[in-house]
Amino acid sequence: MEVARMTAPATRIIVVDDPTAVAEETAARIAEAARSRVRASGRFTLALAGGTTPKKAYELLAERPDVPWGAIDFYFGDERAVSHDDPESNYRMARESLFDRQSIEEGRIFRMRGEMPDLDAAARDYEAVLPDALDFVLLGMGEDGHTASLFPGLPAALETERRVVAVTGAPKPPPRRLTLAPKALRTAREVVVIVTGGAKAAVLAKVLAGPLDVGALPVQIALGVTFIVDQAAAAALPAEKRS
User: Mean of the per-residue pLDDT values for the chain?
Assistant: First the structure.
């Protein structure tokens, strides 16, 4: 059973039992958002995250008959500077866990070209196809407080003009990446951050408690949205927010 609490005027925390429950809740939220937006506008734009829990969420999403698949355009929150079929590619993960299972048309998949030698050019190209406001962005959070490929201490987290940027010197391999910038995240209609595991409990508590320091904790860009977390990740939150 989920528990919802507010830590700021518009920040909602949903605590569920374990990573599987996080994936289930995430898939359900994406499906609900897709149906609602397609009813309103005929189209739904979704930016996908990488990672183990998102992969499980996509597998569950692919099994749902209530998703308007033909009206969804798929984008990515970030991508590593690897070929599209590399095991480290977020696109490959999404293709195997979601796109192939639903036979998604290639024309509805907008992948970041991480294989391009000039990542700045790749970022500009992606910015050109990105909608003015994404309908739904799914994000994760690392143990250092990074989200997408916005890492502590790197300039991408503080970018104010561009919506997509190249990243060099990322502390996690590979060091070269592409990522949505804060402007793209802040203009999205809905953002969900998923967090699992006790190793992230302390930083999650710090992120939500403040003070606001996006340069040190880039996931704070997403404050004011929905966090779906498991009990282990919520362990350091105040008791009233996880009981």
Answer: 94
Instruction: Give a yes or no: residue 243 inside a domain.
Output: no
CA dist., res. 228 & res. 192, Å (int): 7
Q: Quote the CA–CA distance of 95 and 101 in Å, as a whole number.
A: 8
User: How far lies 59's CA from each of 32, 37, 80, 98, in Å?
Assistant: 16, 21, 21, 6
CATH number for the domain spanning 219: value is 3.40.50.1360
The answer to which of 4-8, 55-59, 147-151 has the lowest mean pLDDT is 4-8
pLDDT tens digit string along 127-153?
999 999 999 999 999 999 999 999 999
Number of domains in the chain: 1
Q: Give burial (CB, 10 Å; 0-12/13-18/19+) of 157.
A: buried
Whether pLDDT at 6 is above 50 = no
The answer to whether the beta carbons of residues 219 and 179 sit under 8 Å apart is no
Q: What separation, in Å, do the N-terminal and C-terminal C-alpha atoms of the chain show?
A: 10
For residue 85, being part of any structural domain is answered with: yes
Q: Give the alpha-carbon dihedral of 216, 168, 129, 58, to 10 degrees.
A: -70
Cα–Cα distance measured from residue 69 to residue 206, given in angstroms and rounded to the nearest whole number? 38
- Here the tokens at position 233 are 């990740």
Kindly state whether residue 54 falls inside one of the protein's structural domains.
Answer: yes
**What residue numbers bound the domain in which 24 lies?**
3-236
